[in-house]
Design brief:
The chain has strands spanning 2-13, 17-30, 33-48, 53-65, 70-86, 90-105, 115-132, 135-145, 153-166, 169-180. By secondary structure, it is an all-beta fold. The chain is flat. The mean pLDDT is 94.
């Protein structure tokens, strides 16, 4: 077997704004047969209207997962949110909004469109907390509510325990869950 996973995060926080970008990639083979191949690049920019209430000015995402029959998926959204907890050790936020998604499929059944688009509503939460001086926990969850051609509703969840190993070197244990309620059938009807 061959398993390659990459997770990267870029974050900037000021008193009035917050920027976050995430990248997640999974690739796996077993006995030469591909068993996973997906990538997700997402980011957002928040502007604080009060000390805790913010406007998610823009959020964007690129996603591909050949096993879910998604060749390319692009989305843009906007919304509002509120920091439920914001201390030196914990930041927990909740938000919601609206957006637009364009999706291209790897293959489709005869007579079906090879792409679909949808407006969507979204909700999500993100909790980043320092459990001890060298142990951090991150939980990031979002759900989208779309039209039937785009899957009806989707979920994305990332949970990570991060151990400060040596200096700036961390050892992370992560669980990633992606779910599409009604994925588009491929050319074979699967």
């Amino acid at each position: 077997t061959l398993d390659v996973t990459a997770i990267a995060n870029l974050r900037r926080r000021t008193a009035r704004s917050r920027f976050n970008a995430d990248y997640i990639s999974n690739y796996s083979t077993a006995k030469g047969i591909q068993t996973a191949n997906n990538q997700r690049l997402s980011g957002y920019y928040d502007w604080f209207l009060t000390s805790r209430f913010y406007w998610k000015v823009l959020a964007g995402e690129y996603y591909r997962d050949s096993f879910s029959n998604i060749d390319n998926q692009y989305s843009l959204s906007t919304g509002v949110g509120y920091d439920l907890v914001r201390t030196t050790k914990t930041e927990w936020t909740f938000g919601g909004g609206v957006g637009y998604q364009e999706q291209q499929f790897v293959s489709v059944e005869a007579g079906k469109d090879d792409s679909a688009s949808s407006v969507f509503g979204t909700i999500g939460t993100r909790c980043d907390t320092e459990i001890t001086g060298n142990l951090d926990f991150l939980y990031d969850y979002s759900a989208r509510f779309l039209n039937g051609e785009n899957g009806r509703y989707t979920h994305h969840m990332l949970a990570t325990l991060s151990f400060e190993f040596i200096g700036d070197l961390d050892l992370d244990f992560s669980v990633v869950w992606d779910h599409i309620r009604n994925p588009q059938a491929d050319a074979d009807g699967n």
